[in-house]
Records
---
Amino acid sequence: DAGVIQSPRHEVTEMGQEVTLRCKPISGHNSLFWYRQTMMRGLELLIYFNNNVPIDDSGMPEDRFSAKMPNASFSTLKIQPSEPRDSAVYFCASTWTTQGRELFFGEGSRLTVL
Amino acid sequence: KQEVTQIPAALSVPEGENLVLNCSFTDSAIYNLQWFRQDPGKGLTSLLLIQSSQREQTSGRLNASLDKSSGRSTLYIAASQPGDSATYLCAATGGRSGNTGKLIFGQGTTLQVKP
């Protein structure tokens, strides 16, 4: 079975550039989560969707961050403009809200903003 | 607001030793608690999921317990092996957001098992 698929795995960009991270959840899952991991702050929840609808975006750090889920099999996290402090590993995770809610993670997208 | 704490931050043991990792949470009205493993540069792998109505879950050499009244969970690893070396993360849902799967993570315990 294919797990959660994220792309790109690594991204290096310059400050001010737009960054788009992509996620394909596990087929049949109806909840999707975006997390950010840094050494200083650990894993932080940025936003999550239920049935493609954003439920809680209180973890999104600034207006520079935005996330969309146009359909059940695809989500994007966009940073525009990017800043060096956005450097982190961004994880996407998915689950079923009706079956125990075990959370499955992708391999992450490592972002470096110079 | 749910807060999750893991102690110790790091642990080093000789191969073959049984060990316990600790996790505490502030909001006892959890929906479930999940233990993950993370290898360097990798994503998180789910190890065990304990529903709020359960006291423990077992998978192979791993056993996780849940005590909601004291706000604690433990992950027991039997007969540790060098391949168990990784960071172990505990995550719990907050009571008010429990039915959404929203997990709050601890900072993790980095385990090293020496041959």
---
Amino acid sequence: KAGVTQTPRYLIKTRGQQVTLSCSPISGHRSVSWYQQTPGQGLQFLFEYFSETQRNKGNFPGRFSGRQFSNSRSEMNVSTLELGDSALYLCASSAGTPQDTQYFGPGTRLTVL
Amino acid sequence: QKEVEQDPGPLSVPEGAIVSLNCTYSNSAFQYFMWYRQYSRKGPELLMYTYSSGNKEDGRFTAQVDKSSKYISLFIRDSQPSDSATYLCAFQRMDSNYQLIWGAGTKLIIKP
């Protein structure tokens, strides 16, 4: 079974721009969660989508948004990029119940200049 | 006070040593305890999980939970250079919130 894929793997943007990251979950998984990972803050939860609906949301500003499509693929968008948005963005997929294992993709490394 | 405390390391030990990795937490609502391993340039992968206090063993790995002290540990026996990675503890509440709360991760280096 193919794992979670994320595109692109690396991205360089400048302040003020916007960016869209993509995540394809494991086949059959309906839940996709997004995380931001930085050396200082560790892994922080952004939001989780299940069957095209945002089910949970972390404490990030409204510049961070996401969506999920009917095939469970998900996109995350960050508008008006700031230097502090430089991070590894990880998505994880699961079947969707709390005890289900979350399987992570390799992440997208975003650098904001 | 952070909900989860984990020493970021790095922790450097010789091959074959027993490794002890630890996390403390403050939220007594956490009921699901996990350890993830993250290799460089990769996403985290689930290593072990448990619901209850006590020990759970899987090969060279043992996860230990002490709910009364709000303390969890991961022990690695006969450590190998391939165990060199960052180890993250993660916690989950048993209510409708599916969010995982993470430790900062401990970077482990096993010297051949």
